[in-house]
Amino acid sequence: MKNSEKLNEAIGNIDNKMIEAAYERQAEKKSRSGVWQIIGIAASFLFIAAFAVVLSRFATKTVNPSASSGTDTAKEQLLYEKDFTDHYEHNIKFTSDDGTLDYELKLILPVDERFFFKCYAKVTNKTDSSIQLHKTADHNSFFYLENILKNAEYEQTFVYNGNAKTDTVSLKPGGSYEELLTYTDGVKAYMKSDYVQNVHDVSGYLTVTVNLDPEMSRTWGKSFTWFEGSYFKNNGSAADIVFMTPEELTNVTKIHVTSLPEGYDYSFEGEGVKPITDYLASLHPVSIDDNDGYIDGMTWVIELTYADGTVKEIYHIGNTYIHKSDGNKKYYKLTYEEASKFDSIIGSGENRTEDAEIELVYISQIREINGYSYFESEAEDEWQSAVSGMKLRDVRKIISVAQCMPSLLPKDYLVLNVGMEGSVYSAENAHSISCTFIDGIDTDQDGNLINNGTYSSLSIFLYKKDAYEGSEYISKLADKYQIKGVLSADSIYEKYSGSEITCTFMIETDTYYVLYEYRGYEGGKRNLSSKNLYEIAASAPYIKENGYTPTEITVTEPVTETDRYAGLFPDDFSFTIVWGTYGISSYNSKTGVLIKSKDATDVSRYTTTYKASNEVLFKIYELLFDKIKINSYPDEYDPFNSPDAETRMSSSPNQTIIISVTAYGEEKTVRCENIYFGSKGYDERATQFLEAEFAIVDFLARTDEWQALPEYEFLYD
Amino acid sequence: MQDNEIIGLLFDRDEKALSELGAKYGKKLLGIAKSMLDSKEDAEECVNDTYLAVWDNIPPERPVSLFAYISKILKNTVLNRLRDNSALKRGKAMTVCIDELGDVLPDNEDVFDSVAASELSLLINRFLSSCSQDERDIFILRYYGYTAVSDIAKKYGFTQSRVKMTLKRCRDKLAQYLERNGYGI
Question: CB-CB: which of B75, B129, B159 is closest to A12?
Fold first, then answer.
């Protein structure tokens, strides 16, 4: 038999779960899910909001038209160009206070909701005729321009698709501007913006209404987003932030709490609603100016159902409490302490029913950077990130620095930002990596931009000298920072699937910041390679002259897994689980012995050792003790038959489940022997028990150790 | 009908199980069989034989992944027939896939001569475990299910070029993997 035929036969016996997964998988979503779409839309407004904030700084200054000077030779540096068929352009010119610098800004904003835009900033130094050119591709980068633009004065033209002119933006002190444009072809556009001043907490807050055609009223926005990912979208004016009166908190019969980003889903009924309504009633309105707190935590959507069936919805966003409803709108903002109470109420609700599936997932994504931890979870095929226990400013400085504020980096850093399609698979020990989520782009078969999506982004901080010396340093740095998986553009390609990748390379120097983007196929001319990387760095004049800075980077020692989970669960925690129908299986976390089939002809062939990490033990401890409260189950338990049932569910064959746990010196065993073969219990608690058991078994069956064991004897061979 | 319900019917010896099985997986199974055999009639016969094998084996067996279980029976049924009956012709799709697997290791030397089929399967399982999900799923649809590249692209929402490139990379990686494990040329 030929080698290929033997391979073909061997492939016929690959793991069943892999086959099932491949056939069950559905087509990738072409568009983002609702939440991300809204966030993406909101994000586009953030940019405008940020822009408006910058403009507002100039609002009180005298507007002095200035003429730009210099040549356009710097444009040749642009490596990426994309024109939108339907877009706005902002062309802004201004001169610095001391008159030595001329600035020209060109902003390109798409008309549709797609989040992608360009921004070019050309800075001309009148004294030495030098020109610097800046280009940004996401709203966060604009903050860098904000630094450049401070104390300058400006004039602005506004162009729609190049066929119309212009108007002067009317800026109002206090944070809003209005703009009414009449174009040469008769199209009118009206824009109004309101925004929150404290941009350090709120990344954007904007109401923009654009009426491009008197017959077509198009409304944008009324959305704002916090940097930690939560968002709020209202349907009214910009002042729709209100609070709930105590009167509105009576006669509530049911409360449904979900989270944004999605992931948590709780229901409270009867007495269970009281802690929440008490909490809501105890809040005291304060002026926004009195609150200097930070946004921290996810958004809770609280749906109140009243006795008469009416439903009201509240958005509890970080430390801001918002009532989304009609009529009598008042502004309300929580204190930091107040806001933190709600999570604990949700977490300790005795009467809650948890609708979310109990699921044991690989939680290897908990990260720690400079003492702050954050985590990532997987939902809707996208990676989501949230931050816990951090002040938002710290998040921006530490985790998302590559995305939002290059200028905050120490000056001897460069930033390599590599964006790619798909998920980050093996970015462990990522204390030098930031995984952020930015709106990206998608391409059709010809490589044209057709859609925006969300792609993960991985940032590696590099020394100037690293980039200067070329690709080898990237590998060394990866070792130094214990970055696994991503070493260079080439290895990125190896590690991450997908033939189309977008690579972005940002260089920040003391005086400017340049962003390069590459998109292409392996071997393509525009694909980022190690050679490209070196050439880019070497061709940057500043780096070429000053790139070799032999300063050691201070790197925080990575936190060990033991330290990370210290105190989160008892030191003596261990568990054993026995399960199965034919071929009973078992696992003992203390000994690590994992047996696939105790009934095999040769059991040793079906026995292996799997040492559960602290991370896994912690997750299982949470599952057994926090989620299902295993101590509350009887020692002898039949999840399919209520003790009061007149008839009993049974099956042949039956199954056995035995879970034993040890924690804080106490032992507990729940024995379910010869029970019905099924997955849904006779009540919710029974089902939760079965789901927990399934989650653990499913997890164990996915380990490499289990996968390496042979197929069951009694299955088809 | 859910898989566990079909299995329940089989355990109850209810012949409705076979009609439900056919309704749920018949098209997929016939697709695999037709890609492996030149004759549509032979393919249908193999699928019917597969249903009988399922009836005979469940119970006592209770597969966790029903489709994977029955598709393996089907594939082995077809392969056994091809082996036992030289008059039968291999399907074009399967032939193309096997040709593609020739990339992994050339057929001019039988490097698997002394390798047990189970060991090779184990190696491939491990290799696929190390692949990304995209790679793994595309590989399985192509070389397990003999699915056309265009159909894979359509199913997963990828471009055909991406599917082809992923397959090429998988084959290359598999060749390297096998070589590292002592099965290179």
Answer: B75
**Please, which pLDDT band fits residue B30 given cuts at 50, 70 and 90?**
confident
- Is A362 an 8 Å CB contact of chain B? no
- What's the CA gap between A175 and A93, in Å, rounded? 21
- Scan for tokens 């060394």, then name that residue: A476
Rounded CA separation A87/A161 (Å): 6
Where b means 16+ CB within 10 Å and e means fewer, A254-284 reads bbbbbbbbbebebbbeeebbebbbebbeebe
pLDDT of residue A622: 81
Indicate if the alpha-carbon torsion angle A21, A26, A28, A31 is positive or negative: negative
Q: Residue A21: inside a domain, yes or no?
A: no
Q: How many structural domains is chain B composed of? A: 2
How many CB pairs below 8 A link A and B? 176
At A244 the pLDDT is: 54
Strands of A446-573 (E only): list them: 449-451, 454-463, 501-508, 513-520
Nearest to A576, CA basis, from A627, A653, A630, A654: A630
| A200: containing domain | 34-215
CA distance A532 to chain B (A): 23
The two three-digit tokens of residue A701, written as one number: 């069956």
Q: Which of B32, B63, B84 corresponds to the end of one domain?
A: B84
Question: How many alpha carbons lie under 13 Å from residue A664 in its C-beta half-sphere?
Answer: 6
Taking CB atoms and an 8 Å limit, are A21 and B137 in contact across chains? yes
Mutation site, B74, B82, B134, B179, interface A, largest A CB count within 10 A: B134
Contacts 24+ apart (CB under 8 A), A29-34: A29/A381, A29/B157, A30/A442, A30/A451, A30/B157, A31/A451, A31/A453, A32/A382, A32/A452, A32/A453, A32/A454, A33/A380, A33/A382
Q: What is the pLDDT of residue A242?
A: 38
Q: Is residue B77 located within the same domain as residue B96?
A: no
Q: What is the pLDDT of residue B48?
A: 86
Q: Are residues A535 and A393 in the same domain?
A: yes
pLDDT of residue A688: 87
Residue A125 backbone dihedrals phi, psi, to 5 degrees: -95, 115
In this prediction, residue A594 carries a pLDDT of 92
| Residue-range definition of the domain harbouring residue B63 | 3-84
What pLDDT was estimated at residue A577? 94
Residues of chain A under the 50 pLDDT cut? 28-86, 110-119, 121, 131-243, 261, 285-297, 319-333, 348-561, 715-717
* pLDDT above 70 as % of chain B: 90
CB contact under 8 A, A12 and B101: no
Whole-model pTM: value is 0.30
Burial class (CB in 10 A: 0-12, 13-18, 19+), A113: middle
Radius of gyration from C-alpha coordinates of chain A: 29
